[in-house]
Amino acid sequence: MTIAEVSELYNVSSATLRYYERIGLIPPVTRKENGIRDFQQEDLNWVEFAIKMRDAGISIEILIEYVTLFKMGKDTIPTRKALLIEQRESLAKKMEILQNTIDRLDQKIEGYETRVLKYEERLK
Amino acid sequence: MTIAEVSELYNVSSATLRYYERIGLIPPVTRKENGIRDFQQEDLNWVEFAIKMRDAGISIEILIEYVTLFKMGKDTIPTRKALLIEQRESLAKKMEILQNTIDRLDQKIEGYETRVLKYEERLK
DNA sequence: TTACTCCTTGAAGTGCACTTCAAGTCAATA
DNA sequence: TATTGACTTGAAGTGCACTTCAAGGAGTAA
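The joint structure predicted for all components is written out below.
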């Protein structure tokens, strides 16, 4: 799969994909003899993982750490697991904040509900 | 209340509070005769709102728009309400993404669960 | 009265995560 | 054969949201 196809598939720019590879946020992508990237399923899995995690707000620094551990082999399995658990917890906290904010917005919107009615009343 | 006290109270730097006021993310703060900020309850409400919304990831641009509408008076009430509803929706979408990512992480962690066991077995 | 601390503003600097640009290679098509 | 279009790399540029710096003012303690 070419970089353009992957770009289309995951709705991310080619430049970003190259950037991710360059900084080690995904492992080196498979190349054809001429040096052109030819994404295999394994590469796609990494791309998808990277994009999903970034979308959830996990920092590039953390993700590079994860990929670096992966490259170091099996000895890092417990560390990698710990890293994922830590990130899971941080996302759960984010969810909580988000839920609280939504509740707060709902209250504020509810407050506007009556005020809009009054406002429209005034217009008559 | 001084800026240092507000800074402490909401765990945000004085510089950020000044910055928020300067860019119009909160309305102008009440001052003493000598020009020093003396936050009143009303000011605090704005500060709290701004910080909570920022924490939830709502952009500065949007929040400035809201404050600007507020300053323009009652005619903007329906617009303000619409803006809040829009943001509420966008937060709900974020929650969904977050939940999906957490689910995905849980699966990945579960996968590591067995691999860690194997790894520790190997060490014996 | 000098020194200290906290406040003020305006301007410049920083960190993160891309994004754009410049220069070049390669394969396919007019 | 020339040119078009997609690819390559390295470097520089961008946007957002602060953060730090520089210069100065006001109030209090020694």
